[in-house]
Amino acid sequence: MSKEFDVVVIGAGPGGYIAAIRAAQLGKTVACIEKWKNPAGTLKLGGTCLNVGCIPSKALLASSEEFENASHHLADHGISVENVSVDISKMMGRKDGIVEKMTKGIEFLFRKNKITWLKGHGKFTGKTDAGVQIEVSGEGEGGASSEVVTAKNVIIATGSKARHLPGIPVDNKLIADNEGALSFDTAPKKLAVIGAGVIGLELGSVWRRLGADVTVLEALPEFLGAADQALAKEAAKQFKKQGLDIHVGVKVGEVKTSENGVTIAYTDKDGNAQTLEADRLIVSVGRVPNTDNLGLEAIGLKANERGFIDVDDHCATAVPNVYAIGDVVRGPMLAHKAEDEGVLVAEVIDGQKPHIDYNCIPWVIYTEPEIAWVGKTEQQLKAEGREIKTGQFPFMANGRALGINKADGFVKMIADAKTDELLGVHIISANASDLIAEAVVAMEFKAASEDIGRICHPHPSLSEVMREAALAVDKRALNM
Questions:
Q1: Which cysteines are joined by disulfide bonds (predicted)?
Q2: Which residue from 358, 376, 406, 475 has the least number of CB within 10 angstroms?
């Protein structure tokens, strides 16, 4: 007789493990299926985000930023440091230690909430009156190769994997995706990056700070086309100043590898044939959903032509009691979006009426300066014919930013011209990932720009720029 659970979650990434915890909090019997193994062959919870994504990349970004500060910016504070060196293996060890701590933390939370971790690959095999049947193959109890469990409700949270390009084989040595680029043993002298999205910019920044000469090739005609144009323009200026060589509108051709490195043939935006030689290449051209080999057809479900599972506003699939969240469904591939959907589905299963406003999900790029936004861009709103007013305030006029030597960037706010409702907030600055949270709260409450302008902000702090940008919407900034 198979084990029966109220809720079975397939995948233990940010969406899956949070869904499992919330369902357990609500009194459900919960199991979570996960097969991820680290390079040592040990099964780990946390998915891509914790193991080879958000967490390790931010650890390396922080380490490389410390190195850059010591090498180039401490002198501004009157601090002299000589012979600064970097130990890549120790840096990687720190990163791995943080990952280990976080994944162990999820194991603790599973035990605390009495969640059963089913170790292996989950695949649908059919439906019975008792519920959905799922075969778990791989690491069953007592060395069993597989077991079948029954779920009254299923949450598919299998995440995504790096998109690879045809003709460019990823070996995670010479040619790497996000996984390999987080584990280089040395900083390459010349590094090529295909893709100027979040991952390409963050990993390109890490290795540039550690000594690489970085060239980024982007197929799209505009740099950071999803961001507000003012933000994208400022980011391009800052990255160029730092030494990132970014080319947009390129068409990548043949990629050849040799003992000496990688050669990339491409056509530039003007149609001219170019050749780029590098020691290593990072391919970061987006991600694709993990929906293959799930046995969806066994329960009358299938992925769409792009590999995603179609769901409604509450993440329900076409099959009753089967839900899907995170990177396998529509919307941005963001860990915090997956987490919110995981909570939402657990509460729907419990009979509650939760809601997610997808317009209030923030985006962040953890470069230096950081880039963050929520809501719509000026170009989107103008395309909609919306009457708007904007306010912008620079960090160079902020005492705290000057004191910490982080005065680049600005906050831009967009409000409805008639009602003053906040429609979008766009930040490029130090700590933008933290500052954007105020804007998310304001937009969730349908606040006006005046509401932020009338809230007392601590002085001196970076958050004062949020208030000044809000005041600037009505052309009454106090410090400009």
A1: 49-54
A2: 475
